[in-house]
């Protein structure tokens, strides 16, 4: 198989999980890859573990850098990547032994495919939830966009294999949370063909202390709103199916209310003004919304965001 894959693993203070992650990659029957480990200023034994693995495996490339966050680490990996395709694995997660082989064979036989989406499982000590894919090949740009922005896809880059060319001019925005959603419009712009695979499984480990499970500070909430706004604007510009951009509009509306309930109204005024500028969506949203979101929208229309925030509060 004359195909070369770059696997990028950002590493930061994950000594407890790192060996399981690396073992799950190195045990793959598919061998035509480089494994780029980006140590993002770890203060535990993570770098030592990476170096120990490097001694016994010539596929491993270590990038050691000061701490800059997940996006910074991914970008550092992309900078040195030599593959035709790229895959991102978070260092506290792991993959099934059949994650790459059949999928890379398919991509080799279908070189026009820009992106592949794989199944994943939310994995914890107490509960595991498998998210299966209905296998599809999408070759029409509009079909690709409607899928990538639908509820069928959670926009996580770790469950995908991409042509490296997608990242020639796009990079993850550094210092930003919800980075996978924030870069989605740029990725979508570059993807003309897409395959949804039913083979393999990415195990997304749910653990205490991870960024996704931390409480919502003002910074986290506003960056979540920034991501939703960016996606919503893109969906409207591209005139995707109305159900898709209404879904984002409803989420945007609800999260503004939640943010107002938790923070000062004035610091969120820009989002409220942006919401008002999208008033043409309101009627259609009311028609398509679930009962919960209908109540939220009606409250906003009748009483405004301040009162809605007091009513809905932190529920």
UniProtKB/TrEMBL annotation:
InterPro entries given in the database record: Glyco_trans_2-like, Nucleotide-diphossugar_trans
Q: Where is the Glycosyltransferase 2-like domain?
A: 6-139
User: Keywords, A to Z?
Assistant: Glycosyltransferase, Membrane, Transferase, Transmembrane, Transmembrane helix
UniProt enzyme class: transferase
User: In the Enzyme Commission scheme, what number(s) does this protein have?
Assistant: 2.4.-.-
Single GO molecular-function term? Answer: hexosyltransferase activity
Q: Does the keyword NAD apply?
A: no
Q: Per the record, a Pfam family? A: Glycos_transf_2
| Membrane-crossing segments per the record | 285-305
What PANTHER family does the annotation carry?
Answer: GLYCOSYLTRANSFERASE (PTHR22916), GLYCOSYLTRANSFERASE EPSH-RELATED (PTHR22916:SF51)
The name under which this protein is listed is Putative glycosyltransferase EpsJ
């Amino acid at each position: 198989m004359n195909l070369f894959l770059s696997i990028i693993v950002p590493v930061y203070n994950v000594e407890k999980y790192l060996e399981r992650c690396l073992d799950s990659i190195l045990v793959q029957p598919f061998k035509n890859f480089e494994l780029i480990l980006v140590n993002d200023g770890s203060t535990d034994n993570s770098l030592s573990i990476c170096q120990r693995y490097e001694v016994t495996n010539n596929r491993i490339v270590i990038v050691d850098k000061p701490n800059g966050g997940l996006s910074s680490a991914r970008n550092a990996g992309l900078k040195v990547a030599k593959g035709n395709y790229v895959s991102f694995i978070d260092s506290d997660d792991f993959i099934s032994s059949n994650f790459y082989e059949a999928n890379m064979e398919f991509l080799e036989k279908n070189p026009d495919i820009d992106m592949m989406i794989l199944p994943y499982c939310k994995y914890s000590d107490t509960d595991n939830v498998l998210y299966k894919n209905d296998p599809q090949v999408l070759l029409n740009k509009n079909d690709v966009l409607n899928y990538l922005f639908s509820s069928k896809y959670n926009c996580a880059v770790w469950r995908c294999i991409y042509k490296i060319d997608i990242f020639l001019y796009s990079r993850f925005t550094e210092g930003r949370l919800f980075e996978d959603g924030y870069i989605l419009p740029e990725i979508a712009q570059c993807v003309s063909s897409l395959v949804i695979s039913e083979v393999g499984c990415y195990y997304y480990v749910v653990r205490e202390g991870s960024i996704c499970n931390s409480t919502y500070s003002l910074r986290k909430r506003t960056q979540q709103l920034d991501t939703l706004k960016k996606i919503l604007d893109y969906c409207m510009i591209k005139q995707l199916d109305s159900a898709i951009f209404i879904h984002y509009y409803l989420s945007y509306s609800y999260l503004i209310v939640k943010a107002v309930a938790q923070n000062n109204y004035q610091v969120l005024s820009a989002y409220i003004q942006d919401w008002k500028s999208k008033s043409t969506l309101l009627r259609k949203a009311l028609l398509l919304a679930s009962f919960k979101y209908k109540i939220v929208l009606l409250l906003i229309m009748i009483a405004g965001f301040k009162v809605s925030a007091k009513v809905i509060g932190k529920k």
